[in-house]
Amino acid sequence: MVASDTDTDSGPVVSTTQLVTFLQRxxxxxxxxxxxxxxxxxxxxxxxxxxxxxxxxTIESAFNDLTSESRHDQSVPVEKLEKxxxxxxxxxxxxxxxxxxxxxxxxxxxxxSNVENEQVREWAREVHGLWRNLSCRVSDxxxxxxxxxxxxxxxxxxxxxxxxxxxxxxxxxYWVIKGLMTSQxxxxxxxxxxxxxxxxETYGYAxxxxxxxxxxxxxxxxxxxxxxxxYNVTKDEELVKKAIPVxxxxxxxxxxxxxxxxxxxxxxxxxxxxRYYAMWNMPRPESSVFDEESASGFSTMLKKQRFHxxxxxxxxxxxxxxxxxxxxxxxxxxxxxxxxVPVDLNVxxxxxxxxxxxxMKISGDKNGSGRFLKAxxxxxxxxxxxxxxxxxxxxxxxxxxxxxxxxxxxxxENQNTNVFASNFAPIWxxxxxxxxxxxxxxxxxxxNSGLIAPAGILTSLTNSGxxxxxxxxxxxxxxxxxxxxxxxxxxxxxxxxxxxxxxxIKSSYLVYKKSGTIHEKLKxxxxxxYGGGGEYMPQTGFGWSNGVILAFLxxxxxxxxxxxEP
Length: 566
Hints:
The protein has helices spanning 18-33, 43-46, 56-68, 78-88, 118-134, 140-144, 172-182, 186-203, 223-234, 237-254, 288-295, 301-316, 343-362, 366-387, 430-433, 436-448, 475-487, 491-515, 543-556, and strands spanning 49-50, 89-90, 96-98, 135-138, 158-159, 260-264, 270-274, 340-341, 388-389, 394-395, 398-399, 408-409, 452-453, 456-457, 472-474, 521-523. It is mostly helical and 566 residues long. The chain is globular. Its EC number is 3.2.1.28.
């Protein structure tokens, strides 16, 4: 049946706030009014808050007056727009205040004692010191008048990623916490988990980020891993007991409704797996002009809505954007994220099952623990049946043939045979990295994949201009693969892990010395270069990058004789 112009996407949509909808109008006008080379970051408009004493209706009325005489292209004079914004709004980020962390010490006792090289040690102290720059708390004005802000109220202080990301992000927080454990900032780490748990309790899932415009999607589910990391160091059983009911709520979100898919193998066995699926089918408010332009070539409302859902779903994956999600890469308009059963999402959910089983066991719930161990075994079987490719020696994403609402039969040709760093993510899981035969195959495949570059692991082999592709490498993928290889009993895998970690540390150091900052991503095809590409300028700060540097230095140290300079 051919879609008509009036057909619409019937999938779930979580409505946004009146303020977000209005700020999108301001964003649109701004992006039409500024000269192309001077266009501000569209996110900066969606992060504005209403200035007292004005209310939304007053400001809307003033905006209608401003735009009533707009030009044919809907632009207004820039100076008038800037005057309007200054008069009626508090600036983006002004509702997030600096917070001095109570558990920060410039040189904690025993800090990175295995880093013997004084030059590296001094730099590590500087990276550790960056937690103070990224530590914030939500202002009292958000508590008093939440409707005046797109920033969401959180009970505890936060660590933000940095730069344009002036709010807490879900999956970033795992690698931030890894670093906070090295920095011995246990109170701060526990606060991050408390904040994320409060979001799950409110919405049923941890939001992509703590903003009103992020309520329509989550991000890679790593909350259980955060709790596990903190417990591993602090043995805080109270935190574990509080976390279990919250994690059960989150687990249900990822394993039901549109997120749940069933793949039937050749023997007729059904394997339950999960996919990303945003509850949104319009342009993302924080990037609405970009999304509208990207969708402008679609002829029907249905096609546009499906495309917008796939864009928002790629944002839910955390890997926005990548050729992984494109049917016909690198053609951006072939984005089809909802049709992908991703390897790494199911790695995170397998880890969640193992974490919940562990937490229930230490809390005395043997039956619950057994139930989740059984679920983890079932997902492990699904990894072998659906994702594993013996010839490639890696796990491959799976393309759905239909909309994913009904069980479908596995087909070999539906595996995505393109090489991505995420194909090696399962090695992070102990049941995989403890299998010596499997590790040998994976190490060989990784070695021959073309992904290992001078400064770390490439995200993909395709240079598409998207940021989650070549030539970029990202801290989360380095850490997962390195940690998995290092935990195995294979000498070759351990050596590979250390080599990749040292490349990443060295390049991060060189970028820091050159630019004075830690970056969101690196260009791993060259030592000492930060990454680019995608829909925004390169960002600095940077939460998860800091965390992985500190975690790697704790894991591998740095001998005094090993030079970090080229």
